[in-house]
């Protein structure tokens, strides 16, 4: 492990798609939705701990999740959790980490990763990350990891590579294409899903901020001397209130000319929907994905049933349903209807405020 | 109120039909399934407290429910709760109360009532009970209350009266007829549902035990001097282990020739099924019966939704369903399927023992 290699885990999301299992007080990254025995953020830490020493991790999260992060990753010291006062999308999040690392170690090389994805084949994944680190070390390159698409998913960003090299320069980014375009992308073979994993030298990404997001560069440069001091919190509060919310993809990756992609196929999923949870879960003889052995089903098929530990359920006559039970909210809805969860949340919030959100 | 008038509440049931809401540890009589704000046993006590002074109540229940009875009816002294060591159907239950009352007051007149029925029109009901008390006081009569049947229910016992007097001698009892017979009964006009409410002098019912259930008479007569002493528990333990389980209907009412019925129509229900709970509940615009205002429904109709206080639910796409959620069991099944609840209980019990029963 190189002492110049750092891992930045982006863990600020307040995902509502898994409501009522995910809640504002405990969003997806802190849950074990797939029943692996570990939360997503814990799995993410362990995955990268094979490559990066524990003291070289930073987690960027919302202020309210600081204690949860330290609870799930007790290997971290409090100074390794960077707290955002407010979510401003990925560019400010990454800037906060990058300018912090530049101050700590100007030779730092950083991996950026979401906190809440699944990777099944960690051996292949580690090999790819190591290749990317080596490449980024030798070049002034902004590296992404591309996933071989298995279906024309319209919810992802697509990366088009420009040649057949293992590590190829990126030709183009396309966010959330329509179905027809996505189908063309999958057939063509040049397009890969954007997994939101980035590898670069800190000097390279700061150079990119300087060129493509000069406002952000100015704001974060100005508070460099406050970072790591007792003035950090107030300075960050100020910067986040002033800086524009923008994604790293839109703000930098789509504009820079030194962007490279390493494509791979290592059992990746962003586990972004109940549909993907269903796909990834073990099913019983009737294709039901059950959280544990206390789910008794009769004439019930192709359904997801998730209950708190110690609770049992008896369910008859549901086909293609999602049943999620928590201590204070029960949700029963067709699997085809999961995009309505946001509406349900709105209705509950209108009546009851934030209590159940 | 006559100091000779007593009310005996039979509260020994371990009803499983409302599982998972009713549990062995807290069966139906201690629940407020209809959301009236009071348990069935509390409502039963209050209903008869208009006629009978509190010190003249006896509750016969299983030993394990003794404290629950005193909690729901704090007006009772501990000696007013008669504890059965084991359920032996209604004849031994009523004998226990009758022989206890004979010792306390040979002139006692007793009303016997189930603990878990609903009566909507209490004014009419009180008038009828008073009539019955008066009649039983003047005659050596075993009185029952008959309910004008509103449908050909095959789950009830039917009482045929022999003439058109307000209080008529009973011609015949018929337990749980088949549908065709039940339809004939309803059309005929001479048949009434047996509500399981009885009124008689203690001397009359003991005379009837002597004649029709001589074994039971012998067993209970033999322990008369133990009743009300510290030897009562052991004596009752012995009697209940020896005496035959038999209902009062089958053991006495169908055989005696001094049985009378007072028919009435006062909004009675035994609230014996989820179907009857649904009928009796307030429904929303889509005919859903909801336990409280935290039940959010979408494209959901004709369903019963019962949640613990403080819990909310979001339910989409259920028609004619029962959703019952408790702290440790969730049940979702079609309303047409409620007779399967016993099977569900068996399956859960087979796996998990009594924990969830």
Q: What does this protein look like?
A:
2 copies of one chain form a homodimer. The two termini of chain A are 41 Å apart. In chain A, the strands form 4 sheets. In chain A, strands 6-9-7-8-10 form a 5-stranded mixed β-barrel. A 4-stranded mixed beta sheet of chain A has the order 12-14-16-17, with helices on one face. In chain A, helix 3 packs across helix 6, helix 3 (90-104) packs across helix 7 and helix 6 packs across helix 7 (214-222). The first copy, chain A, is globular, with a radius of gyration of 21 Å. In chain A, strand 7 (157-161) and strand 8 form a beta hairpin. The longest helix of chain A has 17 residues, at 122-138. The first copy, chain A, contains 11 helices and 17 strands. Chain A has 357 residues and is an alpha/beta fold. The interface between A and B is medium-sized, with 33 and 33 residues. Strand 17 (329-334) of chain A pairs parallel with strand 15 (312-316) of chain B.
Beta-strand content estimate of chain A? 15-25%
Whole-angstrom Rg of chain A = 21 Å
Query: Helix-strand pattern of chain A, N to C?
Result: EHEHEHEEHEEEHEHHHHEEHEEEEEEH
Average the pLDDT over all residues of chain A and give the rounded result. Answer: 95
**Largest sheet: number of strands, sense, barrel closure of chain A:** 5 strands, mixed, barrel
Biggest interface goes to: A-B, 33 and 33 residues
Placed side by side, the strands forming the largest sheet of chain A appear as 6-9-7-8-10
Termini of chain A, distance in Å?
Answer: 41 Å
Percent helix among the residues of chain A? 25-40%
Subunit arrangement of the protein: homodimer
Enumerate how many helices of chain A there are, as a single number.
11
Structural class of chain A: alpha/beta
Q: Give start-end ranges of low-pLDDT stretches of chain A.
A: none
The count of strands of chain A amounts to 17
How would the global form of chain A be characterised?
Answer: globular
């Amino acid at each position: 492990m190189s002492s110049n290699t750092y891992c930045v885990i982006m863990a600020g999301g307040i995902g509502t798609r898994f409501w009522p299992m995910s809640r504002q007080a405990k969003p997806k990254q802190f849950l074990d939705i797939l029943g692996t025995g570990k939360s997503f953020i814990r799995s993410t830490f362990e995955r990268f701990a094979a490559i990066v020493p524990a003291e070289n991790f930073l987690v960027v999260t919302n202020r309210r999740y600081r204690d949860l992060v330290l609870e799930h990753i007790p290997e971290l010291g409090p100074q390794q959790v960077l707290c955002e006062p407010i979510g401003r999308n990925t560019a400010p999040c990454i800037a906060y980490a990058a300018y912090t690392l530049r101050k700590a170690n100007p030779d730092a090389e950083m991996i950026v990763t979401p906190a809440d994805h699944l990777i099944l084949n960690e051996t292949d994944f580690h090999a790819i990350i190591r290749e990317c680190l080596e490449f980024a070390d030798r070049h002034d390159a902004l590296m992404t990891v591309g996933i071989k698409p298995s279906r024309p998913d319209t919810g992802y960003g697509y990366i088009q590579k420009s040649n057949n090299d293992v590590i190829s320069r990126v030709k183009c980014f396309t966010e959330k294409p329509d179905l027809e375009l996505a189908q063309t992308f999958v057939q063509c073979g040049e397009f890969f899903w954007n997994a939101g994993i980035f590898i670069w030298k800190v000097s390279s990404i700061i150079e990119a901020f300087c060129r493509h997001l000069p406002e952000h560069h100015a704001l974060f440069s100005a508070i460099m001397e406050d970072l790591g001091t007792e003035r950090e919190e107030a300075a960050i509060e100020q910067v986040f209130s002033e800086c524009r919310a923008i994604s790293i993809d839109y703000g930098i990756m789509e504009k820079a000319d030194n962007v490279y992609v390493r494509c791979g196929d290592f059992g990746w999923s962003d586990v972004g929907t109940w549909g993907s949870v269903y796909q990834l879960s073990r099913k019983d003889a009737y294709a039901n994905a059950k959280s544990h052995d206390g789910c008794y089903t009769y004439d019930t098929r192709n359904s997801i049933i998730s209950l708190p530990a110690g609770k049992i359920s008896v369910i008859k006559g549901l086909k293609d349903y999602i049943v999620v039970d928590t201590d204070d909210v029960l949700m029963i809805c067709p699997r085809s209807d999961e995009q309505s969860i946001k509406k349900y949340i709105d209705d509950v919030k209108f009546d009851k405020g934030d209590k159940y959100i």
